């Protein structure tokens, strides 16, 4: 698995994007971070459509962080789209960031192919700690099969 591949952040809140980028820097995650602002943009990015067709500029990520609660198309729409494309879904790790830990939401996220469901911390220190854990497990320890991004 490429440890220095691109990470895709799917987040519609501009303030959260800034804070998450800071948390990545603070946690020592130096991977390129691409950001899209809606479920619709995430689908286009992952599908290599429109402006995202240039895979040199917009490479398929090895890790994607998907906010579930977004205006327009939410994270569940992205999960459903990916569920219908198992070949694509196998090429990267998908971590869901949820603000709700209801059993039904967590269950549905996993049923649709999420590999991890994390509560989105609201405190910067907690967010940085969460990013450190993501780095330790998903970037440093986890291995993907041959052919994955």
In short:
The protein is of the alpha/beta class and 149 residues long.
Describe the structure.
With about 150 residues, the protein is an alpha/beta fold. The chain has one domain (about 5-140): Rossmann fold, CATH 3.40.50.2300. The chain is built from six helices and five strands. It has helices spanning about 15-25, 40-45, 75-85, 85-90, 105-110, 125-140; strands at about 5-10, 35, 65, 95-100, 115-120. A five-stranded parallel β-sheet has the order 2-1-3-4-5, with helices on both faces.
**What is the 3D form?**
globular
Q: Within the CATH hierarchy, at the fold level, what is the topology?
A: Rossmann fold
- Mean pLDDT across the residues is 91
Report strand %.
15-25%
CATH class: Alpha Beta
Number of strands: 5
Summarize the amount of helix as a percent range: 40-55%
CATH architecture classification name: 3-Layer(aba) Sandwich
Q: How many H/I helices?
A: 6
Radius of gyration: 14 Å
Strand sequence of the main sheet, in spatial order?
2-1-3-4-5
Reading the helices and strands in chain order gives EHEHEHHEHEH
Low-confidence stretches: none
Determine the CATH superfamily.
Response regulator
Characterize the main sheet: 5 strands, parallel
Structural class: alpha/beta
- What is the terminal-to-terminal distance? 7 Å
What's the number of structural domains?
A: 1
């Amino acid at each position: 698995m490429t440890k220095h591949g691109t990470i895709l952040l799917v987040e519609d809140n501009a303030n959260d994007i800034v804070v998450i980028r800071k948390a990545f820097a603070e946690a020592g995650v130096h991977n390129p971070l691409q950001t899209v602002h809606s479920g619709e943009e995430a689908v286009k990015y992952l599908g290599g459509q429109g402006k995202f067709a240039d895979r040199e500029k917009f490479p398929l990520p090895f890790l994607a962080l998907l906010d579930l609660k977004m205006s327009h198309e939410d994270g569940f729409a992205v999960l459903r789209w990916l569920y219908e494309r198992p070949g694509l879904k196998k090429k990267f790790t998908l971590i869901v960031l949820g603000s709700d830990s209801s059993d039904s939401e967590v269950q549905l996220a996993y049923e649709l192919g999420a590999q991890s469901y994390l509560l989105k911390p609201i405190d910067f220190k907690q967010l940085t700690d969460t990013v450190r854990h993501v780095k330790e497990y998903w970037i440093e320890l986890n291995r993907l099969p041959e052919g994955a991004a």
